[in-house]
Structure formats: C-alpha cells, structure tokens
Amino acid sequence: MKRIAAFCFFLLSIGTIAQAQQKGKTYLFVGSYTGGKPDRGIHVFSFNSKSGALKEEGAAYELTNPSYITLSPDGQYLYACADTKMPDTGSVMAFKIDSLNGSLKFLNRQSSGGDNPVYLSVDHSGRYIINANYSGGSVSVFKTNTDGSLQPRLQNIFFPGSSIVPDRQEKSHIHAAVYSPQCDFVFLPDLGTDKIWIFGFDTTQAQPLERLKDYQELAIPGSGPRHFTFHPGGQFAYCIEELSGMVSSYTYHNGMLDSIQRIYANSNSHELCRSADIHISPDGRFLYVSNRDDGENNIAIFSIDQAKGMLTFVGHQSTYGDHPRNFTIDPTGRFLLVANMASNTIVVFRRDMKTGLLKKTKTEIRVPSPSCLQIRSYGKEQGAVGSEE
After folding, report:
1. In terms of C-beta density within 10 A (0-12 exposed, 13-18 middle, 19 or more buried), how is residue 284 classed?
2. N or C: which end of the chain has fewer CB within 10 A?
C-alpha cells in the first residue's frame, strides 16, 4: 500500500508540474537599492500578459544595493551587480531561478574587480558574463560553472581618459557592456571619456576580451554614452547619451559602427541631461528611451525605418513617477514597465503595437528604490525573453 501511495503521489506531483508548465508563467525580476544596508534587494512578481497585473511572489534577502540584474539565455539563472555605490567594494552574485514559483536560490558571489558595478551581460552560451564597473572605470569577465555559479574573474581591464564635463567626466565611467548579435564583439559605452570601446570576444582564449586597434567609436565631447542596444535584425545599433540627451544611431557590420543620425530624446533643452535607459520593441519597429531630468521623467518614443535604421520622433509619455532609471518591454510586446526609482514605484503601460504609443494601465505597485527590471516567460512561452540590457 505504501508503494502504491508513493507512486500516486509521484504521478500527482508530475501532473502538477506539467500543468504549471503548460499554463506558462511570466515573472518580473526587480533589482533595487537598499540604502547601503543588507535588506530585501531583489523582488519577484508574476506578470499577467493579458491585463498587465503584477502579483508579488517573493524576494531575495540580505542583499546590499543589487542595482542591476540580468538573466541567463535559458532563464535558469539570475546574476546581479551588488554592493553598488559602496566604498571600495563591489560584487557579482549568482542565483538559481525556480520557474514554478519564481523563487531565487543564492549560489555564490565574486568580487566585481572594481567599484560601483552597474551592468551585466551574459553571452548566448550562458557561460560568460561581462560586468561594467562605473566608478572603477573597468570591465571584468567571469565564466560560469555548469550549475550556474560564478568562477573567479578571468579578466579585468581598466580604461584611461576623461572628457570636458569636470564633475561627471573626470575619468572613465563604463556604464554598459553589450555583446554583438553574434557574441563576437563587446561594446562598452564610457560616459566618462565619450567613447564606445569595441573589443573582440573569443572564448577560445584564456582572456576572451581582445583589444582591437582602431576599434573605438568617438562620441561628441560632453555627450556621455550610457546604454547601448542592437536592433533585432542586427544591422543597426543605438546609444543613449546621458549628458546630451541624444540618441546616436549607427549601422553595424562585423564589429564596426557607422554613425547615421543623432536625435534629441528630451522634451526640453537642458544644459546637462539625465537620459538613462534604451530598448527596442520585440518587432523592431519602435525604440524607447527614459529621461530623468526635472520636468522630464518620461519615455521618449521613436519609430525605426526598417531599411535605413533612422529614427522618427513619435512622442513623450510621462512615467507618472520620479527618476525612471530603467524599464523593460514584456515578451509579448504589449506592455512596457517602468521603474521610477526616486518615487518607489513600478508603473505598467499598455503599448499600441501599431503606433508605439503608451497608455497607463491600472497597475502601479510600490517597491523601494527599483533600479532594474528583467522579465521572462516560462512554460508554454519559454524562450521569449524581455529586456536584455
């Protein structure tokens, strides 16, 4: 009888798991600032891709300022920049994701190799992670173990230089690390030196990041390149410049960028802007940028010429909050979610697939100092990934 009961329980468990996977779940993972003290730092919400509703599922505790997070390509692991803005420290953390309930299991942490880590990218294989250290002016490369945990860093590169805005560009400030569509190059926007550093990426080498002669894109002095993204088609690339408030557009081929356009993203002129994040809709038709200046706090919307890559301004949408540091688009493309860091809210907008315009939904939740959003569908929608930057 015990064997029969155990077998029945086993079948019931398999059925429950299969049912959950068949239905599919979408989770929103939220990185945040914790005021420099260990606290609940990464929040997990289930997301309704029909209504835009969010439901809290859990969190990771005893974390200090896990300000930026990213997911592995298969959605099994979450990686976080931690100890951001803490003096003389910085770390990268690894977590295992339970796709049935969204819970996070801590795996391990490694030193980031520089102060104030602010950005992480994972390559297509899920085996290599690149971290950008803003205050440290450096990037580091990590390899993962088969269980998703992090090995000690393979490589740590520091960058020289400065530019013309004394209090913001006194030295290098690497603000992002983005793989090319084929993961054979890495692009590093440097707010401090007005450069986009371009490196080769070769996993057959012990130190995969390779300096390439003449492979750097010079930005306009004082522009402050911040975040960078590729068009889904792979032939165009776009960089939001934090200090100028401009989007620079490029054609892309084999590691090389050719500038084709610069267009203003702010709604008003500012001596120094505070533009932040940039993403493209899954269908590749629209580009979105967040602006954080006083009188801004909005999302700029642009349509993309699919043949030439040029941007046309569509409009601005208030984020109904303060300091939209980061945002993401859900895997269906129907919703855009904004993290208003200073007003402690996440606001969900419905996205018009034809016009690109945004309309606020009823979903607005409170999260302390949300600074990064990543969204992922599991089960029947598995394979569809939201934000990657």
Report:
1. middle
2. N
CB distance 56 to 366 below 8 Å = no
CB atoms within 10 A of CB 232: 15
Please compute, for residue 387, the number of CA atoms within 13 A of its CA located in the half-sphere on the CB side.
30
191-205 as b/e: b if 16+ CB within 10 A: bbbbbbbbbbbeeee
Q: Identify which of 344, 330, 372 has the alpha carbon closest to the alpha carbon of residue 120.
A: 372
Chain center to CA of 283: 18
Place of tokens 């260990």: 38
What are the distances in angstroms from CA 259 to CA 230, 304, 308, 310, 366? 14, 15, 12, 10, 40
Name the residue among 27, 29, 78, 30 with its Cα closest to residue 48: 27
Q: What is the DSSP string of 268-329?
A: S--SS--EEEEEE-TTSSEEEEEE-STTT-EEEEEEE-TTT--EEEEEEEE-SSS-EEEEEE
Predicted TM-score (pTM) of the model is: 0.92
Structure tokens belonging to residue 350: 């419905």
Backbone φ and ψ for 10, nearest 5 degrees, come out as -60, -45
Nearest one of 142, 161, 164 to 152, comparing CA atoms: 142
Q: What is the pLDDT of residue 294?
A: 82
State percent of the chain over pLDDT 90: 87
Calculate Rg over the CA atoms of the chain.
20
With cut-offs at 50, 70 and 90, classify the pLDDT of residue 268: confident
- Residue 86 burial (C-beta neighbours within 10 Å; 0-12, 13-18, 19+): middle
CA 372 vs CA 32, 152, 240: distances in Å: 7, 25, 17
Q: Look up residue 293 and give its two tokens.
A: 């200046």
Q: Which pLDDT value is given to residue 6?
A: 43
